[in-house]
Amino acid sequence: MSAVFKNDTRSIDELIACQKPGHSLDQRFYIDPDIYELELEKVVYRNWILAGHVSQLPEPGDFKVFKVADESAIIVRGSDGNLKGFANVCRHRGSLVCLDQEGHADKFQCPYHGWMYDIDGNLTAARNMNDDFDKSTHGLKPVSVGEVHGLFFVCFDDNPPSLEGAIRDLQEPMDMFDFKNLKVVAQKNYPIPANWKLSIENYQECYHCATAHPEYALMHTLMISRDKRGRAAQHMYERMEACGIKDIEVDYIDGAAHPGEMGYGYWRTAMFSKYKTGSRDGKPVAPLLGSIKGYDSGQSDIALGPFSYLLAYNDHIVAYVFTPVDHKSSNCEVYWLVRGDAEEDKDYVVDELTWLWDVTTASDKEIIVNNYKGVHSKYYEPGPFSKMEDMESNYIDWILSELQRP
Ligand code: FES
Ligand SMILES: [Fe+2]
């Protein structure tokens, strides 16, 4: 750890008060394990995180294990057909219960002493316990699971933020892509040896795109695309209606704007006119989604809470989920989704579908790691954001305000 950090005796509150608005964060926010612990409590475990699409767990007993930092949850389709979440922690002496990442189960058996739980979390068998042992009070503890138009989310808090606003305001745009009937056809984890905030900060700004992402910059109009109805995006607006795409904009609000509610947003951005979708040559890579009737050289961005972001092309969706592993490392989980009835190798080829965001995420990982190395230096000093880093700047402000929330 750097000398700067060791000599810094300011309390976290004092440190927050010293942050310069419109600047990157002080070194300690990226390397101090105490700040990380506070972030877990106040930010990470209190908010919804995208954990998958309902099509991944169609039948009762289908499950998936979802890990964030020190927590692990079993998300399972219960016997009543609803998705349920349980802490993956045995009620005997705390072993992880389910060691598989996903699959189908009739029951979950703890690998330590064999306690058995059914798919609704009830303890059904525990050998050689005393006569007064009550199985009914030793079921797996519940973890919050919520759904937004086919996407399911996990929150490690019994009082999670409300999803109502997101469900209501994103219904129209998400119905357009028929989110409920998509399917996941590829999923890849990119472990990033850097503090989680640097991974998300990177995703939130495209100031780096021109230098770091030649593939992406070729097709996306970067800053200009956000300039609503600006000249560079005109071709998209002219085509949108003919493609059955409504011009909907849901201003991004973070949780601070509506306390107690998950933040969300939706907006459409233009690609250069020769690109129909986010693919190697700009040509379609899968059947058109939902009610969309053609290509307008546009793409929608959807933000769902502080850890989950989606890119909606006219023929496929790419979902990004950033989570901390510990204070020094994070995961970037990427999902690629297409129409539920699309057939592999006939309607889409996985390598073609995943190419753009695979190369882009690999280069992001590299620049994030360089960033993480640099902020450890005694010469690092928070620097000013460009106007292309507004979202990142707001995100940092939100984190700081959450850290101070009781
Ligand atoms: S810790 Fe699970 S059965 Fe003992
Ligand atoms: Fe990037």
Task: Characterise the protein shown here.
This protein has 2 domains: 49-146, 3-layer Sandwich (Rieske Iron-sulfur Protein), CATH 2.102.10.10; 164-403, Alpha-Beta Complex (Naphthalene 1,2-dioxygenase Alpha Subunit, Chain A, domain 1), CATH 3.90.380. The chain is 26% helix and 25% strand. It has helices at 3-6, 12-17, 28-31, 33-44, 164-169, 171-176, 196-203, 209-212, 214-219, 222-225, 234-240, 350-375, 390-403; strands spanning 49-53, 62-68, 71-77, 83-87, 102-104, 107-109, 116-118, 123-125, 142-148, 151-155, 182-192, 250-253, 264-270, 298-304, 308-312, 317-326, 329-339. It has a 7-stranded antiparallel beta sheet, with no helix packed on it. It has a 7-stranded antiparallel beta sheet with strand order 11-17-16-15-14-13-12, with helices on both faces. α7 (196-203) crosses α12 and α7 (196-203) runs antiparallel to α13 (390-403). The mean pLDDT is 93. Fe (ii) ion (FE2) binds at residues 202, 208-209, 212-213, 360, 364.
* Oligomerization status of the protein chains: single chain
What is the CATH top level name of the largest domain?
A: Alpha Beta
Q: Given the C-alpha coordinates, what overall shape results?
A: globular
Give the N-terminus to C-terminus distance in angstroms. 29 Å
CATH architecture tag of the largest domain: Alpha-Beta Complex
Q: Which residue ranges are poorly predicted, with pLDDT under 50 across at least 5 consecutive positions?
A: none
CATH topology name of the largest domain, in short, is: Naphthalene 1,2-dioxygenase Alpha Subunit, Chain A, domain 1
- N-to-C SSE series? HHHHEEEEEEEEEEHHEHHHHHEEEEEEHH
CATH superfamily heading of the largest domain: Naphthalene 1,2-dioxygenase Alpha Subunit, Chain A, domain 1
Structural class: alpha+beta
Q: How is the biggest beta sheet arranged?
A: 7 strands, antiparallel
Report strand %. 25-35%
Overall average residue pLDDT: 93
What ligands does this structure carry? FE2/S2 (inorganic) cluster, fe (ii) ion
Number of strands: 17
